[in-house]
Amino acid sequence: MSGHHISSAKFLWGIGSALFFLTFITVAASWVHFPSPWNIVVAIGIASVKALIVVAFFMNLWWDSKFNSMLFVMSLIFFLLLIGITLLDTLFRVDPVPSF
Amino acid sequence: MATTDAPNIKRLQVRRFKPEESPKEHYLNAEKGLWSWLSTVDHKRIGLMYFGSIAFFFLFGGILALVLRTELLTPTQSFIEAETYNQIFTLHGAIMIFFFLVPSVPAALGNFILPLQLGAKDVAFPRLNLASFYIYTIGAIFTLIAIFTGGIDTGWTFYTPYSAETSSNVIMMTLGIFILGFSSILTGVNFIVTIHKMRAPGLTWNKLPLNIWALYATSIIQVLATPVLAITVLLLAMERMLGIGIFDPALGGDPVLYQHFFWFYSHPAVYIMIVPGFGVISEVISTFSRKTIFGYWAIALSSLAIAFIGFLVWGHHMFTAGQSSLASMVFSFLTFLVGIPTGIKIFNWLATMYKGSIDMKTPMLYAMVFLFLFTIGGFTGIMLGALVVDIHLHDTYYVVAHFHYVMMGGMVMAFLAGIHYWWPKMFGKMYNEFWAKIACGIIFIGFNMTFLPQFIMGAQGMPRRYYNYIDQFQPFHQFSTMGSYVLGVGFLIIAAYMIHSLLRGKEAGSNPWGSRALEWQTSSPAPHHNFEHTPVIINGPYDYHKPMSEFQLGIAHSHNGHHEGEKVDVETGTAQEKA
Amino acid sequence: MNRLTEYMLPPARSTLASETDALFHFINVTSIILLVGITFAILYFAWKYRRRSEDDVTPVITHNNKLEITWSVIPLIMVMIVFGWGFSGYMNLVTPPDDAYEIRVEGASWNWRFFYDNGAVSVNELNVPVDRPIKLIMSSTDVIHSFYVPDFRVKRDVLPNRYSSIWFEATETGQSVIFCTEYCGEQHSNMDGMVNVMSQDEFDTWLESGNAVDESVPPAERGEALVSQNGCNACHSVDGSSGVGPSFAGLWGSERTFQNAEPVTADENYIRESILESNAKILEGYDPVMPSYQGVINDQQIGDIIEYIKTLE
Amino acid sequence: MSDTSGVQDKPKHLKHYFVDSDQQFEASKMGMWVFLVTEILFFGGLFAAYIVYRSWYPELYIQASTELDTFWGTVNTAVLIGSSLTVAMAIRSAQLNQIKGLITNLWITISLAFVFMVIKFFEYTHKFDKGILPGEYYTYEGLAHEKANIFFSIYYMMTGLHGIHVIIGIGLMLFLVYKAKKGVFSSEYYTPVEITGLYWHLVDVIWIFLFPLLYLID
Questions:
Q1: Separation of alpha carbons A29 and A33, rounded Å
Q2: Which of A93, B288, C61, C117 has fewest C-beta within 10 Å?
Q3: Distance CA B83, CA C14 (A)
Q4: In CATH, which of 1.20.120.450, 1.10.10.10, 3.40.50.720, 1.20.210.10 is domain B9-576?
Q5: What are residue C146's DSSP bridge partners?
Q6: Percentage of chain D exceeding pLDDT 70
Q7: CB–CB contact D23 B197 (8 Å)
Q8: D1 occurs within a structural domain
Q9: What is the pLDDT of residues B250-273, one digit of tens each?
């Protein structure tokens, strides 16, 4: 019975407190002024860690069949693809005259 | 029906179940009355309901096309106003794409055939399947309301800022398409889970029919691309209602960003439309050449390759739209990559016909017409992929001819091949072979008469969506309009002999084409729960060198087997079972 | 074969047109060769391997790696050639030479306006000197249009929030049609203009005379010429028939009721205001689609147009 | 369809076209995960718009995010993470056949979600009073940037769409409580609870990304 992992209450509370702690960290990080590209990297990094914890342990992807994890990773790949190639256009536009 | 998850070799007691030739009891007369149809969860009935609504919308879109062509007979006004013409070409595009092409093979033929080819009793979520049909119907109702209360004149692409400013009711139409998107998503969800979880014992991934691979690739595209259309249409509606200004230049938005979002869905959408057609063509060519498919894995993986690369190329619709040169270069390069798997498929089908025993029945005729027309569509796609030529040809009739060759020459021919191929399985009746061939010839001639001149006209610079045009293009338009009438007549002939076949067609056996595919190993029309037995698969789907009896195996004591098939020489087949 | 593809293309009237045509011919020729090959294969196989009896036995050929690799690699090489060729042509097309003569273009709902560097303005008529690179800097006043001259093989979308530019160098004098190829509303198909390619001195004389007022012609007649030059007759008829905009016949001195303003009698101020701020007063039953002619029609020309409207009963 | 291991009494919830409840459970979970993929891409479109406009107008984002109250944002994040925790506990108690624990956990989750919506409501009304409305109704002069309404349009689209998903989550969980009270769920059959749990966790994950991107831009 592969999909029926039951995690213990202590484990779930541990994950919950980790998430609360990381929330505090991300807010604390916003008080410290990081130079321009790094503040985004830190914010996204912490948020990604939190998201991975929720997805892996609350949503049982850690013990689930590999196909579901692959689905989740595929959706991220296609999301990054949408952004990456769109930025290829929006960041490299050449304006013949300084525009509006 | 994959049971245990440990991939060990499990011995199955198998027996041969010959399909019943003219079944009294089948899914059509299992339950009677309109309510039994409207509330059915049988994938075959849902497939037929989709088939009916798709035929209606194809007729509706086709009539609109004939009105457009008739208006273009003269350079100035023939019989309708500019406003009406703009609405009609918008509706022709939107109805043909969203209501006919996207759902046609996945929802109509796919719903009917997928569980049969998998040996399953039904799709994974039958109620969800019925829900997606009703979502399709609700979406259609909203769109028809939009059409009859003022129409839309923005083109099926709804480009902002025009779509945000025009007074025609864009919101009702986009709401209809928003709802329709969910029907497409839910069909995709259903098919992915069914293919993964509900295959018959022994049906491993390398024995899957290529039609299943094509539907699998299509479902992946449907699931990954349609949500972006949903958010684009939602943003457009918010643009019109709250003026959120993301696409409105006056408020600092960028209309080209709308085009990025729109084409991120709409190019994969053209692969949603064509890849299932590839699946049908693989089945038809292999059955009527009575030969094992050439390059099974090449065709299966090229479907997945098209599904993936299809997501990278959307920018080739925007070469002239003020896109950065870097983006245009990347999109042009990737567009050429997506052409390669399509080319591989064409060559593999040709190689399948080599040294086959080709039976020139109507489905095979349509498959060959498909090969010819789709190859022309493919080459003109390469032409439009080259950057400098696309600058000249973009938004001209060359593009109109290209996508009609690919969509109508490719998808509609494959859909017709699929209908004629599975018609006996759906209704248990044959159609008139002579008239079917006549209709195929008329459609081929009419189609080329309509769209070949448009290539020439487009290269000479005739822009798209033009109500008035300069006199230089009149002879082409007139020739093209004549062709569209011939095309219309061709489709009417099909409708005629198909209805005749429904009423008084002669009885078709369970396997009129002698195919080894699993859906032909049950009676036609199929029983309510698809198979009298639990089918066991030991051969590949196209192993014509194996006797027919090896394709009709089922688990020996599946107690719902109503009748005793004779003992099979294969005492105990070994079926490898995998989760 | 070349005659067919020659026939398919409009006359090449710019320096870069020949490059586009060359790639167009190359792709056409290779496609037709491959298409004939594939069609022959289909028909030949269908005939040679037709089913002779129901129990024909066909050979089991599942794949042939050598063949499959060749028909993957060769098309890949050919499309890469086409890609490289297309991209190099594209780079020439989008990088204008530095000494190009700049003309400002404004796409409005259903006409093109051209502003030359000495202040001259022309509507739907682009006058350019021959054998000289011209750079058009384009923007739109409302929705997206697309500036397309088939004879020069150039096309670029004209965006409302950004400038976009194209360049060309006409090789022979004559007239070439301009199309709008991005759907922009009801009169999208009437939005065509004309490029008049003239010799250099003809162009210079036109440039000077562009704004000079020809005193010998009475104002009403000049007004009539201005009404047709600026594309007013595309939407406003002069004989009372209905069009996108209200007809000019009987306009002078008539009582006008509006959707968004108080009724007023049609006098000089009303006509001037309707030309310059066209959406200030919208007549009953009409859409606010008229673009403003601010900077396109100067005061002298407005006076002539008003004289002409007075003559229309 | 027969089961190869002979006839056994079928559990009530098992559909006839599935072989056993394990296959049905895995199929439902896979179906839910495919649906979650569409949700991720649905919100992905909005994140793409956010990133494109942030790359064009970075200084606008920095100015405009000062208008958002970080304190209430943090509280909302904590509330949503808490509700994610309690929904996980609810699933656990369903798996262990503790139906009372399932119902109480669900009620806590619903109330936390309700608190989240109330905080959002106050944030919105506070902005409406200051004239920060989406799109062309934006009349706030506090920001120097002339394209300021773009940030708030994206803000309203993201948080609005997320809010709608929270409301749908509340509806689903109320339906679960109703079914739990009727005793439908047991350790044998708790698929709907697991499915709604997955959906709720995804709504929480989306907020986890929304919070830093909108509130914590410094």
A1: 8
A2: C117
A3: 35
A4: 1.20.210.10
A5: C157
A6: 95
A7: yes
A8: no
A9: 888 889 999 999 999 999 999 999
pLDDT at residue number B565:
44
ipTM: 0.89
Per-residue pLDDT of chain A (100 residues; tens, 9 = 90+): 345 788 888 999 999 999 999 999 999 988 888 887 888 899 999 999 999 999 999 998 888 888 889 999 999 999 999 999 999 888 888 877 765 5
Q: Give C232's contacts (C-beta < 8 A, 6+ positions apart).
A: C248, C305
- Residue B386 φ/ψ, nearest 5 degrees: -70, 125
Query: Average pLDDT in the C158-177 region?
Result: 91
Chain B hits for D53, Cβ within 8 Å: 246
Residues 6+ away with beta carbon under 8 Å from B472: B460
Listed in order, the ranges of chain C carrying CATH 1.10.287 are 2-48+64-94
* The CATH classification of domain C101-209, taken from the options 3.20.20.60, 3.40.50.410, 2.60.40.420, 3.40.50.1820: 2.60.40.420
Alpha-carbon distance B337 to B382, whole Å?
Answer: 10
Please tell me which residue of chain A has the smallest CA distance to D32: A68
Q: Residue D81 and residue A13: Cα distance in Å, rounded?
A: 11
C212-229 pLDDT, tens digit each? 667 777 777 888 888 887
Rg (CA), chain C: 28
Helix (H) or strand (E) holding B290: none
pLDDT of res. B272: 93
Q: What are phi and psi of B79, to 5 degrees?
A: -145, -5
pLDDT at residue number B9: 64
Give the number of C-alpha atoms closer than 13 A to the C-alpha of residue B220, restricted to the C-beta side.
23
Cβ distance C63 to B390 less than 8 Å, yes or no, reads no
Domain count across chain D? 1
Cα→Cα distances B163→B148, B152, B188, B233, C286, Å: 18, 9, 29, 11, 19
Q: What is the CATH number of domain C219-310?
A: 1.10.760.10
The closest of B372, B408, B370 to B58, measured between CA atoms, is B408
pLDDT at B563: 42
Q: What fold does the segment set C2-48+64-94 form as a domain?
A: Helix Hairpins (1.10.287)
**Regions in chain B scoring below 50 on pLDDT:** 1-7, 560-579
Q: A touches which chains (3+ CB pairs under 8 A)?
A: B, C, D
Given a contact cutoff of 8 angstroms between Cβ atoms, the answer to whether C310 and C303 are in contact is no
Indicate if the pLDDT at residue C89 is higher than 50: yes
Look at residue D12 in the predicted model and tell me its pLDDT.
Answer: 77
* Percent above pLDDT 90 for chain D: 60
Q: What is the pLDDT of residue D1?
A: 32
Of B96, B102, B108, residue with least CA distance to B273: B102
Residue D58 counted as domain residue = yes
- D63 in any annotated domain: yes
User: Is A70 an interface residue toward D (CB < 8 Å)?
Assistant: no
Residue A31 has a pLDDT of 87
Q: Across the interface, do A9 and D89 touch by the CB < 8 Å criterion?
A: yes
Which chain B positions have a beta carbon within 8 Å of A74's beta carbon? 224
Partnered with residue C175 across adjacent β-strands are: C196
- For C238-297, the pLDDT digits (tens) are 888 888 888 888 888 888 888 888 888 888 888 888 888 888 888 888 888 888 888 778
